[in-house]
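Re: weekly structure request thread

Next one in the queue (275 aa):
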Amino acid sequence: MPKIKMPTNSRLVVAAAVMAVLMLSCSKTPDGVLAREDMAMLMADVHTGEGVVEMNRNDYESDSARMALRMAIYERHGVTAEQVDSSLAWYGRNLSEYMAMYDRTIEILEQRLTETGNRVAAEAMSIAGDSVDVWAYPRYLTFSSLSPTRLVTFGLAADDNWEKGDTYTWRGKFFNTSGNGYWTIAAEYTDGTMEFLRYPIATDNWQEIRFITDSTRTARRIYGMLYGDGRDGGTMRVDSLELVRKRVNPETYGSRYRQRLLHRYAEADASETAD
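Done, posted below.
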């Protein structure tokens, strides 16, 4: 049977249709949850906005000023605070989707940094040394009923200074906590496994969560999430945030037993749902 040669334009149309079907079939987000690319673009703008606030603290001293900036970002993307909250909650429960979305967010931010020539944030995440603060985000955060969202996230990509067994200690000074908040640190390894550690934010004053990477695996990304909730419906504040990276310490390495290992990303979603 002779082969039928399709016109070039027809082949392009068919290829585009196939790609569209594949993109739809790969989407795992339910109704009401922002798709991965939309969420990544939004989060990239949110992180950029947080950088603006950090560099212009005098102009954004009040919660209302910071909220106005966040709402302007939401309006630009055509979403509401409720949509963002429900989307962040869903991604927070589905760690594999969250990590894929955050990978894309980092790609967008890195591309913007390259295009603008501003490497300050990127360099802050690639500092050499045995003990260094790699936190490149706002040091002061507030969470209240007026906040556009109660969930803050970060992501770090591996660089030449990372070593197996590195410890990441995320700490801050908390005020007016309700006991319902929590924070999580997770690591994605190059062999497809993932580990995470979640602690409640139970009391005021200094608190920290310490995550120790596997000394037998190579970490590809480090992620974090913080959910803030104020006591009696008030405002919870956290100050002096830092994320300190230290080299492996044999004396504390045994405390890794608190961390949960997931052999494949699919298991992360199932495990989170079961909790």
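Residues 95-116 form the longest helix (22 residues). The CA atoms of residues 33 and 90 lie 7 Å apart.
Next request, please.
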